[in-house]
Amino acid sequence: MTRICVIGLGYIGLPTSALFANEGYEVVGVDVNEKVVQRINEGVIHIEEPGLDEMVEKAVASGRLTASTEPTEADYFIIAVPTPIYEDKTANLDYVVQATKNLLPKLQKGNTVIVESTIPPRTISDVVAPIVREHGFNPDENDVYLAHCPERVIPGNIVYELKHNHRIVGGYTSEAAEQAAKIYENSVDGDVRKTDAVVAEMSKLMENTFRDVNIALANELSKIADDLTIDASKVIEMANMHPRVNILQPGPGVGGHCIPVDPYFIIEKAQESSPLMQTARRINDSMPQFVLDKINKLTEGIDSPKIALLGLTYKGNTSDMRESPALDIIKLLEEKAPGVEFKCHDPYVELEDHSFEHQLYTLEDALADADLAVVLADHQEFKEVMASTFTDNMKTPTILDTRNVYGESFFGVTVHSLTNLVNV
Predict the structure, then answer these.
(1) Quick one: DSSP state of residue 325?
(2) When you count CB atoms within 10 A of the terminal residue's CB, does the N or C end of the chain come out lower?
(3) Which among 5, 149, 258, 344 is annotated as catalytic?
(4) Are residues 16 and 153 in the same domain?
């Protein structure tokens, strides 16, 4: 039986491990967190993702998925660790480097090493290959196969997309691409396209950079419409009537582990050639301040205003707080609006799983006597809240809806959005 060792059991590594185990492979998932390892071996997940609990429980019950704190011998090694950025916006590859070094004692001739982590162009050739080569293997001669197969899923729909999305497999050599593609071809329903490693690296980065640039256009429109006292929602509606136009909705910023990070992996490699990408990043990074400006405007003249912040995650229906603009807005409130009292509510966030220093409240307690509610995530639970929850609890039933959850008419509640800021 083919054996796979997956290093990193987070949002990508854990479902990837379960997918391969449920497809008949023997899988060992590796994580440095002993608590995570223990929970997975009990068939219990440590992250919130629809359908993942059943997926992992089935894989563990079958005996084909186990977790460990150390890599084991395997035919395939998959690296699925984080790739954050430093303060100077360059890629931090420490986790990838360490994961590669950790698997070396178990690496044998003929094995395949696949990096699923998102990485800058030429990381396989310039970082991973030299580490493997220094250990005595020659990936140029294919005594070890190296490849990059970037993950392409979205939190909230990982279980489905992991199985059905197309996959790109970029090999350090053409033979490595063929070898790495085998386990994906046997496990996913989407097409598996083979290419070289640098094309795969760049393709993943451009997918998210494309999205970042288009979000920036919508966010910039929101600011322009605010300056010109135009209803941006009507502008977007009319412009999108054109069959080849699809302007997105503005928001409080861009979060998650991909879109606000991946463009920087390109920018650091091509500083002079990427002015559009850099501008898009500045626009999207400026949105939390734009939201704070609107909060200040809506609470102007109120002594010690009370605000309810609804949603801490970067998107709806997930517990994922990575790079969430809500956290940037909280930081700005603390630094630039010390007289504002705020309470946070998020039905998906469990404090023991996050390093979040503020208390979480029930929705009613967060809204109690509040002058303003600011919606920062489009959770389904928020869409189902009755208007009376706001009118019965708030001092002034007013919402700044940065996610277009409620629309302009909400039964006695005044709703402002980032597309309808005329006179705000």
Answers:
(1) H
(2) N
(3) 258
(4) yes
Residues 332 and 355 in one domain: yes
pLDDT tens string 266-307 = 999 999 999 999 999 999 999 999 999 999 999 999 999 999
- Find the CATH number of the domain harbouring 223: 1.10.1040.10
Catalytic site residue 258? yes
In a domain, 423, yes or no: no
For residue 75, the tally of other CB atoms under 10 A from its CB is 18
- Number of independent structural domains in the chain: 3
Q: Which domain holds residue 96?
A: 3-195
Q: In terms of Cα–Cα distance, which of 405, 418, 232 is closest to 316?
A: 405
Residue-wise pLDDT tens digits, 31-85: 999 999 999 999 999 988 889 999 999 999 999 999 999 999 999 999 999 999 9
DSSP 270-295: -GGG-HHHHHHHHHHHTHHHHHHHHH
CB 159 within 8 A of CB 49: yes
Q: Which of 194, 204, 315, 343 is catalytic?
A: 204
Same domain for 142 and 24: yes
CATH code, 376: 3.40.50.720
Report field, pTM of the whole predicted structure over 0.85? yes
Residue type, 304: S
- Burial code (b: 16+ CB inside 10 Å, e: under 16) for 230-242 equals bebbebbeeeeee
Query: What DSSP designation does 126 have?
Result: I
Q: Is residue 422 part of a domain?
A: no
**297 flagged as catalytic:** no
Distance CA 400, CA 104 (A): 52
